[in-house]
Amino acid sequence: MARGLNTVYLVGTLVQAPELRYTQNGLAILELNLAGNDHVVGDDDRPRELAWYHRVTLFGAQAEQLVNQLQAGTPVLVEGRLNYRTWESQDGQKRSALDVNANRVEVLTFGPRGDDATVVDARGQERLRNALNQVMIIGNLTRDAELRYTPNGSAVTRFSVAVNERFRGRGGEDQERTSYVDVNVWRELAEATGELKRGDPVFVVGRLVNDSWTDKDGNRRFTTRVEGQRVEFLTRGPGTGGAGTRPRQQEAVAQASTSRLDIDEEFPPEEDLPF
């Protein structure tokens, strides 16, 4: 099993002032709602700006130290990791979510072009125009990749990656946690990764994207995934039963890593955001 990598970098503006709260054990928790724009190129070779909104959680002393420095519109840098959590809803349904837990938060300044640094959305909230939204993960596929084609002929491959991390607990003991991350890749990169199999180790670089849909009961649901912009196949270690890196696919991935993003899969309308 691949040694996990789980890193998130976000640069955006706060859509509202965060509220500090504490757990029953006295742990400080600060929830930040960040907003920004991703710059992508569509099929027509025209640049597009796609809005993103992500929730970030900061714990401990840093949360207490920062709360008085943060307000709506404050630009911040977040360095953190994806956190996979599960729970059971009131109706007994199993639910899961992928959040961002911050290891570090830094307050930024806009610099000399501060007046043009943000755009105001439909709710009157500032969103950073030149934002950063990058995810890097290393893990193993939990199932075979699924390659499909949209009605307009665009290839899309979907797979899920289990990211295993080892860390030291508060008591000094070694612990392990696993996060499950859904990944979508498009066009040439989708066709190059369509033959990935369960257990294959991969390195994925992409952007964090939120999707929404309506379930069979009419409830609005949200999910978070990674839209892959680069995928590298890693060689399985000795004794894992893998065949190692596939040269032809590796070459195809290298050629497709800079493929354009599919701009038909945009973030849900701003009025549908969960905050």
Short summary:
With 275 residues, the chain is mainly β.
Q: Helix and strand layout, with pairings?
A:
Elements: E1 5-14, E2 20-22, E3 28-41, E4 47-59, H1 61-66, E5 75-88, E6 94-107, E7 118-120, E8 126-128, E9 132-141, E10 146-149, E11 155-168, E12 174-186, H2 187-193, E13 201-214, E14 220-233, H3 247-256
Parallel strand pairs: 4-6, 12-14
Antiparallel strand pairs: 1-3, 1-5, 1-9, 2-3, 3-4, 5-6, 7-8, 9-11, 9-13, 10-11, 11-12, 13-14
Would you mind describing this structure in some detail?
This protein is mainly β and 275 residues long. It contains 3 helices and 14 strands. The chain has one domain: Beta Barrel (OB fold (Dihydrolipoamide Acetyltransferase, E2P)), CATH 2.40.50. Strands 1, 2, 3, 4, 5, 6, 9, 10, 11, 12, 13 and 14 form a 12-stranded mixed beta sheet that branches. A two-stranded antiparallel sheet has the order 7-8. Strand 2 and strand 3 form a beta hairpin. The two termini are 37 Å apart. The C terminus is likely disordered.
Which descriptors would you attach to this protein?
twelve-stranded mixed β-sheet; two-stranded antiparallel ribbon; 275 residues; 52% strand; 3 helices; OB fold (Dihydrolipoamide Acetyltransferase, E2P); single chain; mainly beta; disordered C terminus
